[in-house]
Amino acid sequence: MDKFYTTTAIDYVNGAPHIGHAYEKILTDVIFRHYTQRCDNAFFLTGTDEHGIKIQKTAAERGITPKELCDQNAQQFKDAWKALDVNYNHFVRTTDDYHEKVVQKIFKKLVEKGDIYKHSYTGLYCSGCEAFLNEKDLTEDGLCPDHLKKPEVVSEENYFFKLSKYKDAIIKHIKQNPDFIVPTFRANEVLNQLENIEDISVSRAKSNVSWGIDVLDDKEQVIYVWIDALSNYITAIGYDPDGSSEQFNKLWPADVQVIGKDILKFHSIYWLAILMALDLPLPKHILAHGWITIDETKMSKSLGNVISPTTVIENFELPIPDAFRYYMASAAPCGKDGNYSDEDFKEKVNAHLANSMGNLLNRTLSMLVKYFDGDIKQEFKVETELSKQAEQTVKDVMHHFDYYEIQEAAQKIMQLVDSANKYITDSEPWALAKNGEMDKCGQVLTTVLDVMCIVSSLIYPYCPNIAKDMANQLSYDIGTKLQDLKTDNIKVGHLIDKANIHPVFLRLDSELADKSQKK
Q1: In 3D, which of 257, 245, 341 has the Cα closest to residue 6?
Q2: Per the residue annotation, which of 21, 25, 51, 400 is the catalytic one?
């Protein structure tokens, strides 16, 4: 691979980040980190969506300017992603000067091309969706199905984008590229939505919405969310209708754009049409993930079950976010809904990270020190059957990531860990040492440690801090590209002293980990 470009949806800054936002960012970061292990030019974009009526109203209620509100809340998102080790390359804000200027150029280009036209319109507007809805989209009670509120009747003269012009081309693209929408079962949803697709409003009258980007040559109109927000994926990497940057030409099209399933329509229809109108290549994949429920209940402010992204880390007093990252990234099969509960979090990370993976490394290194003073001897040969499974696991994990099956890849890694645990239990190196079969004992320990080198590489996207700690204890170069990963990573000679052995992850209910027991 010569490059990998991934994006997330940009978050609306009308409120603080929650665990649903965190799920998407962690999922994307895991994908991004995996692909940094396969190519040298990987780029990860995230950011915030900062225009619109909700921002305008909330700022007015608080007695501050919309920009002040955006500045405050955008920083909350940045702080949250830093705490979760979300390692993006660029954070775009739709109030960034470069973004606003290019959006104006895009809008003007589409007007000149005839793809944007002015039209008087009366429609049902949902401020929660920031969208006009058709009556057929509403519930039996006439409510928005997502926000359960009655849309208001709005009459305006707006600019419209000729979405219907690109209907057939979008249908053709989806049908000819069955893996374009991930998971594939969502493609039929999009094709059904395309049947009755209409042109969409891409501006609002300034008399109704003043907080937005001005339309060039028409100061009575502001550019509406679709041209503004969706264009971030190209403006942030240097697109310009008058001449794009070298970075844009290298990175575009995006390899995968990660979004929630609720905004799939906008990304697989509206966004594609805009790109077609701009004569730009289409993204290779749109990954529509599911939602995260809390204790099997949908998050709701009224229920009081909205969880901040950093609350779990704070409640369990985790010094690093790896456990939460691992749990969230493996919370759901590709495209399906997942669930968070404190009890399940504790049980899963204790079982996988502490008991299976961490304890295996810790006790194997401890036996190496006990029986061989931490030395790997020339005669300790790696056992082939477990090594072959390790090499196959690398291929399996890469295959799952090719299809953005992140939970499934994590399961493969843990299956390898389980096999290594079974191998050491069945081989009983402690009994071999007791019986004086030292070469066999050394072979068992070396084989397991060699497999743990591969595990550290594979688990790195999920648990970057734990993986680096594992690699350090193994004197292993975690920077090896996945396609070059082989067994026989443990070198002959002195590996580790007793003083340098420590658990890479403590059980959440251990005396050391659970600070509450000491209070």
Answers
A1: 257
A2: 21
Task: Please say if 18 is a catalytic residue.
Answer: yes
Over pLDDT 90: what percentage of the chain? Answer: 83
Task: Clarify whether 51 is annotated catalytic.
Answer: no
Query: Containing H/E element for 193?
Result: helix 187-194
Q: What is the mean pLDDT of residues 422-437?
A: 97
**Quick one: which H or E segment has residue 340?**
strand 338-340
> What gap in Å lies between CA 407 and CA 401, rounded to an integer?
10
298 is catalytic: yes
pLDDT tens track for 365-399: 999 999 999 999 999 989 889 999 999 999 999 99
What are 96's two structure tokens? 């960034």
Q: Is 147 annotated in the active site? A: yes
Cα(3)–Cα(239) distance, integer angstroms: 17
Regarding pTM above 0.85, the answer is: yes
Active site residue 453: no
Is position 463 annotated as part of the catalytic site?
A: no
Of 67, 82, 90, 147, catalytic: 147
441 is catalytic: no
Dihedral angle over CA of 240, 246, 251, 254, nearest 10: 10
Q: Which of 70, 144, 334, 453 is catalytic?
A: 144
Q: Are 322 and 466 in contact (CB under 8 A)?
A: yes
Identify the active-site residue in 25, 34, 70, 126. 126
Question: How far lies 390's CA from each of 156, 381, 387, in Å?
Answer: 62, 16, 5
Catalytic residue, chosen from 25, 34, 70, 129, is 129
User: What value does the CA radius of gyration of the chain take, rounded to a whole number of Å?
Assistant: 26
Angle between the 322-329 and 406-427 helix axes, to the nearest 10 degrees? 110
Q: What is the 3-state secondary structure (H, E, C) of 129-175?
A: CCEEECHHHCCCCCCCCCCCCCCEEEEEEEEEECHHHHHHHHHHHHH
Distances (CA, A) of 443 to 344, 372, 416: 37, 12, 18
Is 126 among the catalytic positions? Answer: yes
